[in-house]
Amino acid sequence: MKQASLFRPILAGAELLPRLLAIVGAAIGIALTIVVCAQFPLAHADVPMIVAPVGASAVLAFAVPSSPLAQPWSVVGGNVLSTIAGVTAAWLIPDPTMAAGAAVGGAILMMTLGRCLHPPGGAAALTAVIGSHGIHEMGYLFAFAPVGLNSIALVSLAMFFHRITGHSYPHQPVAPPKQVDEVREAAGFHLEDIDKALADMHESFDIAREDLDLLLSQAELHAMKRRASGVG
Questions:
Q1: 188 and 113 in a common domain
Q2: Cα distances (angstroms) measured from residue 230 to each of 151, 184, 220, 225, 226
Q3: d(CA 137, CA 179)
Q4: Could you report how far apart the first and last alpha carbons of the chain are, in Å?
Q5: Within-domain flag for 79
Q6: Any domain includes 170
Q7: Where are the bilayer-spanning segments (predicted)?
Q8: Which of 120, 117, 107 is nearest to 150 (CA)?
Q9: 51-54: long-range pairs with CB below 8 Å, 24+
Q10: What pLDDT, in 10s, does the model give residues 57-101?
């Protein structure tokens, strides 16, 4: 099926069918997360059963399940550790403006140390600062229920959904290591070349190093075939 132009700018490699599956998966995932979490009464009636950052987590977990930012530990650890950073900032810094900034900065630090960088974690940290009175009263408990509970439920549902739709989650390399080595050798790439290129770019990319390795090697093989056939 030819890729619809509507989806072409969104993400490299994005196709219509996987995107439609992501829509269905996220809708079901969020709905069932609420159903599951509703079985566990919260410590404060003023706190929502599901927190807004989990909606952003669902986008990552269902739409880009191969992203390092969307892996189960990134979702659970990122949201929980970020919320802890937010609660800490709210307790230590009386000024809400300063506390909000410190919460998000602290969340990035916590996620970096925990190797679970997850963008919605910034929103979770901010929620702990600007949230309702009930959230403030719950303190660190808020990081585990509902935030942690929401995250675990969502990840579990995402794992089940991707399994029945034929995707790997947690993400596994798209080819066995031996095959990757063979493709890399045929293309003339070395892992050191990729590491040096990444260092030269001074940027972070939302793709696992192993997937990038195979992608570049495969692209080089196609280029070699094109040159051998005398095309362009």
A1: no
A2: 52, 23, 15, 9, 6
A3: 54
A4: 26
A5: yes
A6: no
A7: 20-41, 47-64, 76-93, 99-117, 138-161
A8: 120
A9: 51/124, 51/127, 51/146, 51/147, 51/150, 52/123, 52/127, 53/79, 53/120, 53/121, 53/123, 53/124, 53/127, 53/147, 54/30, 54/79, 54/120, 54/147, 54/150, 54/151, 54/154
A10: 999 999 989 889 999 999 999 999 999 999 999 999 999 999 999
Identify the domain containing residue 219 by its residue range: 177-228
Whether residues 186 and 155 fall in one domain: no
Count of domains in the chain?
2
pLDDT (tens, 9 = 90+) of the chain, 232 residues, equals: 444 555 454 555 566 788 899 999 999 999 999 999 999 888 788 899 999 999 999 999 999 898 899 999 999 999 999 999 999 999 999 999 999 999 999 999 999 999 999 999 999 999 999 999 999 999 999 999 999 999 999 999 999 999 999 888 998 766 555 665 666 666 666 667 777 776 776 656 666 666 666 666 666 666 666 666 766 5
78, 111 contact by CB (below 8 A): yes
What is the pTM assigned to this prediction? Answer: 0.79
The verdict on 155 and 53 lying in the same domain is yes
Name the phi and psi angles at 49, rounded to 5.
-70, -30
Residue 171 lies in a domain: no
